[in-house]
Amino acid sequence: MSTPVVEKKNNKSFLELIKTNAFRAAILSTVFMGFGQFYNRQFVKGLLYSIGWLVTLVFYSQPFLWAMWGLRTLGETPQIRERGRVVFEGHHSIFLMIEGIIALLIAVIILCIYISSVRDAYKVGKKRDSGLVPYTFKQSLQNSWQNGFAYILLTPTIFFTLFLTVLPLIFSIMIAFTNYSAPNYLPPRNLVDWVGFQTFINLFNMESWSRTFYGVFTWTIIWAVASTFTTFFLGFFYAVLIETKGVRFKKMWRSIFILPWAIPAFVMILIMRNIFNGQFGPINKYINNLIDHYPFLAEWGLSAIPFFSDPTWAKLTLIGVNMWFGFPFWMILMSGVMTGIDKEQYEAAEIDGANAWQKFRRITFPIVMFSTSPLLIMSFANNFNNFNMIYLFTEGRPSNTDYNFAGSTDILISWMYKMTLENSQFAVASAVGLLIFIVVAIFSVWNFSKTRAFKEEDMMR
Question: Residue 270's closest CA among 256, 281, 258, 286?
């Protein structure tokens, strides 16, 4: 007997709901933008919404349908040439893709405005149900300015972000699911097709691509780990050394060691490349002069060092030069952290009989790691994509005949550069870029969540 009573009560509440001004205004705005505002007697606002929606339906419907067709098909007719002249322009697959993405982003903006109109009609209708008088158009503008000032200022930034950041990001992701590459799929002479996950399958399974990908990916991981930790601990070492009691002229030592970081990296990398040059670099030139004056050194195995022609030497040189560039940052950072450590902690440790190593292990090291571990993770992500160091110093050399469009010292980001700007392998490069994002994002998020600084901040919230 209780079930019919509940159903009756629910039916009654639903009937009450549909009689409310809030419900009716929301439904009317859902049917046609602005009708809910007319129902709420906000005629100017309703007129603006309705005109905007009419203009959208009349002038944007057809371009939107065309853009969706282009995004779905990427064109049907390639460019036609006769005797070297263009007879028919045809469809440009990449332009169609970009137009489709832009149309989708505009549609998202229109949808947000549509939802806001429904929400506005519902809120005003709810006020009417409470016995309140709706705002006039002038009062609505004043209220929006007072309560939504921050959102008004953020709106241009949102639009710029949407079309200057989100648009290229979506475009680069979509390219990974096409066959956009030389020599057979370059518009406008050829159309580009959607191939799904085939590019990723080829990257992992096709021998010519997989051998390159696994080799470059392995070296990228080694490079990121080695370059991050060598600079970190070298900077830590010098910071501890400078902060040691008895070391005089601390400011002078800091100033000397900061110079490699203060000088523009672009210039210094090129200078370093000349220093390690195998033909005219001063290091090998000095070794050759020694051999000329003392031939027996050659018999003992001394010879010019193949800094850029031997893969192992090239990788070691890269890591060594990167240490020289990177350690000053960590040294200054850690010096600042150690300067801020309360001296009473060390005094208490000395009273308890702790020696220098124990004070370092129990006080200095934990505090420095707590302060710098988030930056250490960011440094790893930065080195994972350290294009400047790789490309300017070695250009990916030495060449590797087993790799496609990559050298022995290329990392994923420099390999992407060569595939796009030098070899027009856009689909594979886009797939590699997407994998880089996934790897770096997962590593960074997971490690950030494990740091003590992140946990303590989360607990404070």
Answer: 281
